[in-house]
Amino acid sequence: MNWPQIPIDANKGYDLCFGCGQNNPIGLKLNFQWDGKTARAEFIPTKFYQGWSGLLHGGIITTILDEAMGYAASSGGVNCVTASIEARFRRPASIDEPLIITSSITRKTRKLVETKAVIFLKDGTIIAEGRAKQFVVNAKSDSINNKEGET
Hints:
Blueprint: E1 33-34, E2 38-43, H1 58-75, E3 78-89, E4 99-108, E5 112-121, E6 126-139
Antiparallel strand pairs: 1-2, 2-4, 3-6, 4-5, 5-6
């Protein structure tokens, strides 16, 4: 597959990113923490992100999964764009219901990073799960060479 050259200026920051940008007035403002293996964030959806009355829109759930998996890849040392994503919905999420999001890298090669993510309630009930393949645009550092899954 021949991917086009995609200019990504990571030096400009992410302040207006819909998922994590803290200065995006309509964004989700997700704030992930990375422990070296897993990204984690908490999110309380408001009525502005609903589909059916009182329920979080499925597209927003997928966006949260995508953002989490992108964060894991980025924390793993590479800038990526999503090549494919799969979301599995387990139950609806209610507006104003606190959610926990986790994600991690499952495999990394020179050209692709595979990730997984889960959105769940504080009691552990799973809302949605996701898997993605992300095309590596460029390495942030020498960390692209990862012994796990290297091909």
